[in-house]
Amino acid sequence: MTEATRTKLTNVSVATLATALYKRGLRNQVIQGVHPVAPKGRNMVGPAFTLRYMPAREDRNELSVFRNPDHPQRVAIETCPEGHVLVMDSRKDARAASAGDILITRLMVRGGAGVVSDGGFRDAATIGGLEIPAYHSRPSSPTNLVLHEAIDINVPIGCGDVAVFPGDVVVGDDDCVIVIPAHMADEVADEAVEMTAYEDFVTEQVKGGETIIGLYPRTKDEHLASFEAWRAKNGR
Amino acid sequence: MTEATRTKLTNVSVATLATALYKRGLRNQVIQGVHPVAPKGRNMVGPAFTLRYMPAREDRNELSVFRNPDHPQRVAIETCPEGHVLVMDSRKDARAASAGDILITRLMVRGGAGVVSDGGFRDAATIGGLEIPAYHSRPSSPTNLVLHEAIDINVPIGCGDVAVFPGDVVVGDDDCVIVIPAHMADEVADEAVEMTAYEDFVTEQVKGGETIIGLYPRTKDEHLASFEAWRAKNGR
Amino acid sequence: MTEATRTKLTNVSVATLATALYKRGLRNQVIQGVHPVAPKGRNMVGPAFTLRYMPAREDRNELSVFRNPDHPQRVAIETCPEGHVLVMDSRKDARAASAGDILITRLMVRGGAGVVSDGGFRDAATIGGLEIPAYHSRPSSPTNLVLHEAIDINVPIGCGDVAVFPGDVVVGDDDCVIVIPAHMADEVADEAVEMTAYEDFVTEQVKGGETIIGLYPRTKDEHLASFEAWRAKNGR
Amino acid sequence: MTEATRTKLTNVSVATLATALYKRGLRNQVIQGVHPVAPKGRNMVGPAFTLRYMPAREDRNELSVFRNPDHPQRVAIETCPEGHVLVMDSRKDARAASAGDILITRLMVRGGAGVVSDGGFRDAATIGGLEIPAYHSRPSSPTNLVLHEAIDINVPIGCGDVAVFPGDVVVGDDDCVIVIPAHMADEVADEAVEMTAYEDFVTEQVKGGETIIGLYPRTKDEHLASFEAWRAKNGR
Amino acid sequence: MTEATRTKLTNVSVATLATALYKRGLRNQVIQGVHPVAPKGRNMVGPAFTLRYMPAREDRNELSVFRNPDHPQRVAIETCPEGHVLVMDSRKDARAASAGDILITRLMVRGGAGVVSDGGFRDAATIGGLEIPAYHSRPSSPTNLVLHEAIDINVPIGCGDVAVFPGDVVVGDDDCVIVIPAHMADEVADEAVEMTAYEDFVTEQVKGGETIIGLYPRTKDEHLASFEAWRAKNGR
Amino acid sequence: MTEATRTKLTNVSVATLATALYKRGLRNQVIQGVHPVAPKGRNMVGPAFTLRYMPAREDRNELSVFRNPDHPQRVAIETCPEGHVLVMDSRKDARAASAGDILITRLMVRGGAGVVSDGGFRDAATIGGLEIPAYHSRPSSPTNLVLHEAIDINVPIGCGDVAVFPGDVVVGDDDCVIVIPAHMADEVADEAVEMTAYEDFVTEQVKGGETIIGLYPRTKDEHLASFEAWRAKNGR
Questions:
Q1: Which of the four pLDDT bands, split at 50, 70 and 90, describes residue E228?
Q2: Is the pLDDT of residue C117 over 90?
Q3: Whether A21 contacts A57, CB under 8 Å
Q4: Distance between CA B55 and CA C45 in Å, rounded?
Q5: What is residue F111's predicted lDDT score, i.e. its pLDDT?
Q6: Residues E44/E160, Cβ–Cβ less than 8 Å
Q7: Which of chain C's residues have a Cβ under 8 Å away from the Cβ of D54?
């Protein structure tokens, strides 16, 4: 992902991106059932670095396993590249935590761009207060060892019923999180910027009393000229 | 619905209305699973204008369908009468959006009193910032075309497992939304105002240390006099 | 529960307590599916006083039943001992209310330490504004009579899939609620205070750039000395 | 319950009983989510004897607890009166068993009229082969100790979202199970027998080509005479 | 639908049809969550005639409503054209019945080709014994009046999350039910017959020890000749 | 797994094995939500060979992918070792198939001991008629490409919320499927055989009128002698 693309994706909504992907035949890229731990008022953007959890078996998941420096959960936190989003496949099960504030703080300090789990975080109130954007299903205080064993790092996973491949571009806003296949990120970002300009124009028109018929989507010629004028005026 | 009834319904809670309907044998009028996109601190009140979604079939729901000025979703937004609440039957499925900020803005500008979906809205953070009250299940960024085809306007529908007939009176507060059958709206509004007066009196008493036994509901005669005095004093 | 234990439990997180219980073989003490009606920024702590709801049968649950001074819901509110947490088994069904603002206000005035239901409260917006901590699944305006009949006071119950025995110690923070078996409350509180000290130290280290490997959990000797120094310095 | 009533209830369907109860304002007496472990082709009928499970806490539910002769699960099996139906409140959770074949065999030998759980039975294939009717949600092999602690015998419970009071009359056919409040069992049985006669007449008419309009329910006078003739001819 | 198409659809599986539709971009035509009340060992085939249920409101759904000869549920049964499949939108809610044995018997006598509900049937054991194929979610004894009000006949509906338009061709086998858009029924039937021939050939080969690689799907030329020989030999 | 262990596991129930594992601290080894496609009246036994599905992305899952001889689903079928059970992680999603009859037939011909998916099979009626035991959640006709992409072979997976490692011993009976960690299979098989002998003895006693108290579990000395006599007599 280029810096230009990252910047573009910072300024468009997940809804707009979802429509851009829908045009390309991808109907199912919004991670279902997750929301911001706390809204940040700005987008999370970064390539996906993944962690896969499987169900925990009691004899393999005593508290002592965390003493192992190679435990995949810990390694994921310590190796997630700067600017990447750590995406966790928690099998949509928030009855135990995917991670807690100490790990997410460490991820933030290391330069992580964000974290997403289709389970839940413990210490969620604290995580919500951190700078790093975090998305989950709901707060969940039990240690992950109760239900989840971290088993694989940076393999293809599912998260909230969406396919996530390492390197896919992950974007989150105050509503949702979307996964853009790596090979189409640039093109989708470009289109989303264009769409956003038009949507902003439309919103202004609608607030001024214009009907949506013929305007959104544009089927009347008259709006083409107005939009061009608006772009010129607003430098977009 | 008279303006007097609208005013009364603006000043009572959905909980109180639910009890008033329960007394009349209606146990199931609170829309399940919806909440305010953002709390407004005031009630939404208006007759229902409905939109029915059915499952979307791919060949009937390409992006181009919105170019049709007669698309029912667009028409619903453009024809919902002033002062009405647009209620959408999204089959309790929030995996794709019921509508987005541009349409809801248009509905607001046109004088809509509010909007309710048992699915989810895209651009929910933006919608939450609008003046118009909106209720849904959760933010959902994918375009409705992925799952929902708007098929009927102003027919009887289900919303959150509640029957909604066009013209039924819809009231929402910061907790929930309730549907009052049109023919009993006046009578229920009257009763709810009375109940609210008594509940406000009770709350004051309870805060002052009174037990609820005999007071709520009132079975002790002594509270009758106090309540009458309270009403006189508070002009209610 | 001693006052010392209460104080300790006021200053630790539910996540930490969950881990302390996990060490003792208890994996399932966090009440699933409940959250604060409104975050209080402080812990709820108190022994459990319980109320059991069963499904409501129509002929036993007309509105008049509340005129009975011995109705178990009312009695629970009026007899819950000071400093206790009222825990309601609502069978995880929030389609009707577990209680409303008047009853919760009365509980608060009587000195209740908090209230938890695995269903939902009506008048939730009002309850959220009260001093008393309250936890539920979601706002629910219908009267409990629609679905729930209060049947037993202070018997062992389930709440959010967790066993709750009268007298068990209930702790809630801004994320979750946990149930500590009465006989181990002192010991668990002690351990949680110790763990919290270390976690606070770790958070400080991690914010300063330290890796979690060897630090959390501590396997490197060097951190032992730093921690002891930190404790001395911070008086913990 | 008289023997006459038991006999009547043996020869009517749960559907017919549900309608008879609906006429009396009871809408919710059919236990949701249970079915026969194996269809018996005959009705289960008997007064309810109840067992309440709560969530299991690990330290109270080691395998050794079954050595206690007073363990409520075992006591329920050994004290359920002859001709009664043992109804278990398993909180609709079939992830662990409510009971297994040995206990159900013992219940059968002791004269139990049947067993119902809103969880699942282990050894279900074996239980299905026993003479005693059994109803559950699905086979479930894990011991109940994993999730369920038997805590109360013969108290009011919920089963499949239905209120069950000890002594209520429980009837199961090859579709479903219904709970008839004890005080109305005789009257409901009488009415159901009458309804069944008419339904059998209707079925015969419909198979012969008659329209249901005017016949079911009967609004045309002509069907009254035919029905009376049919009753006389069939001795019903 | 021509008789030729009907015959073809009688001899192919729903799985094969699902793949044929998938090739045409339709991914979601199999009705989710329904199965045969009793397997028939033969396909149900017919154009859809639809019935839409909405949530029932108590004051509109007393038992007496069935005395109305224009009640939509009754009218649907009496007007569904011969050879058609009656498809009911029961909002995936099987807590009350969609219909019972008397109505389904009448539908059968009138020549209905089958019946599908995404809710449940009462008298299911009896319905399972009828000649007419019926599909539902599970047996459900309560009268539909408890939850469902029949409101519309032969409008577009959802059934098990699938779009069903009147006239769409509905096919059910012992596994599932699929909805084929009317305009592509002939073409899909043709293709499915071809696919079935090849699948039958493949099954025979695989039973004889052949690997699926290169055979299913066919990528090796050698299988083309064998298949042609097989067709000639088996007259397909 | 030795042949002796396989034989032992063929003659014990999943319920007995679940209890044997519970004694060793493993509470969660029974795969939740699966049942036999058709009961076989005999156990499925074999080491696990696994296949992991992830959510399908449209552009990676066109029908042509099956032409690739290296497609993981096909490879899994063709490489699962003789005597092994193929266990599929379908993320508990049965909206599309995990496999169909041709692949399962091929697996059977190759000597597979069985197949388990926590999703559903297409052509389930046919699969149920095959010799090979198969377990799933429900029949599901849509091709797997709609929802599932086969991504990994023989890695640790979750199936029905249970951890499955390649080589773990999988046992299925007519109720459920259980996963025994490889390293304890022999010991658990031995214990289960012993337990089964005692349970068979108990069943005989209970059918003869013996109370379960003191017998199951055995706490009375007298039953020890009877059991030993029974063993001698029955050669067990």
A1: very high
A2: yes
A3: no
A4: 48
A5: 98
A6: no
A7: 156-158, 163
Verify whether the Cβ–Cβ distance B216 to C102 is below 8 Å: yes
**What is each CA distance from D204 to C141, D10, D215, in whole angstroms?**
48, 21, 11
Could you list the beta-strand ranges (E) of F100-236: 114-117, 134-136, 148-153, 157-159, 162-164, 169-172, 177-180
Query: In this structure, which amino acid lies at residue D110?
Result: R
Question: Residue C136 corresponds to which tokens in the numbers above?
Answer: 């539920």
3-state secondary structure of F144: helix
- Bridge partners, residue A114, by sequence: A85
Note the pLDDT of residue B1: 86
Quickly list H helices, E1-89.
3-10, 14-23, 72-79
Mean pLDDT of chain C: 97
Q: How far apart are CA A144 and CA A117, in angstroms?
A: 12
Half-sphere exposure of F87 (CA within 13 A, CB side): 33
Written as six digits, the tokens of D121 are 């039975």
Q: Look up residue F48 and give its DSSP letter.
A: E
Q: Does D58 sit within 8 Å of C26, measured CB to CB? A: yes
C contacts of D158 (beta carbons < 8 Å): 54-55, 91
pTM over 0.90: yes
Query: Under a CB-based contact definition with an 8 Å cutoff, are residues E154 and E57 in contact?
Result: no
D residues 119-138 near F, CB within 8 Å? 122-125, 138
Q: Is F71 exposed, middle or buried (0-12, 13-18, 19+ CB in 10 A)?
A: middle
Contacts of D31 in chain E (CB under 8 A): none
B14 with B34: CB under 8 angstroms?
A: no
Cα–Cα distance measured from residue F62 to residue C213, given in angstroms and rounded to the nearest whole number: 44
Long-range pairs, D178-181, Cβ under 8 A, ≥24: D178/D14, D178/D17, D178/D18, D178/D21, D178/D29, D178/D30, D178/D31, D178/E141, D179/D29, D179/D31, D179/D48, D179/D87, D180/D9, D180/D17, D180/D21, D180/D29, D181/C57, D181/C59, D181/D26
Residues B143 and B122: beta-carbon distance below 8 Å:
yes
Chain F: give the shortest CA distance to residue E63, in Å: 36
pLDDT above 90 coverage of chain C, percent: 100
ipTM value for the complex: 0.97
For the residues of D43-76, what is the DSSP string, one character each? -EEEEEEEEEEEEPPGGG--GGGGGSTT-HHHHH
